[in-house]
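Sequence only, no structure available. Ideas?
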Amino acid sequence: MKKLAIILFFTLITGCKKESRNNLGKVVVDVIEPVVLAKQEKKDHQIREIKKAEIAPNVDGETSDPIWSQTKWYPMDQNWIGEFPDFKDFLGRYKITWTPEALYILVEIKDDKLYDQYKDPLELWWDDDCVEIFIDADNSGGEHQYNNNAFAYHIALDGNVVDLDSNKKPILYNNHVTTRRVTKGDVSIWEFELIVYDDKYQEGKTNDPIILSKNQKLGFAIAYNDNDNSKERENFMGSVFVPGEDKNQGWINADIFGTIILKE
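Reply:
I predicted one. Tokens follow.
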């Protein structure tokens, strides 16, 4: 019975040839078309409608642009790694808007110590303080660890932007994300302009970004790696609830991203 089940399974996956005979006794071969198993669709969650900016914000680390007074704050309060930090150690929130050319994100981080131990931007970049922005252009979800189905941009204190490429190597994506950070006391304002690319993006090639439009859905999440003075990051605080014990999935699995809907 087990062998029969296995045969039936591979028949469905790969297809097979079936022999029969016609009225003249000749062998006729009928090809059974292979069955393509569809990828399970992402289930939209944390659905948020995002207001369009009539005037794109200046990426200057300031909150004075008109659109920022018209949009709401969202928390970065989901503990993905480490112990839940004391509010004196970390508190994070963000706003988001869009134009046809880009997404714009304003992040406010309360962090009593900014730590940058690795001067090489491609060395253990996740163990330094950094903002991480997750974006999935078609909101399809799925695996993206070593491909461009989605991106996980790590933006360092010095503005360098890192993700893994299809060769499993870290590379800089500084032309994808423009950023400016202004820190006063223990509060940092980060402002980002994010150019959105879809899964056709190829490293080393000429790529056209997508044009954003009304009612478009994108997968989105944002997080902060916090390290006060340790060899490894101490906390990883995200914007989206991740079920299960392993919550550090955003850099691999775009299914955990929330869904933003672009509105006017």
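The mean pLDDT is 88.
Hope that gets you unstuck.
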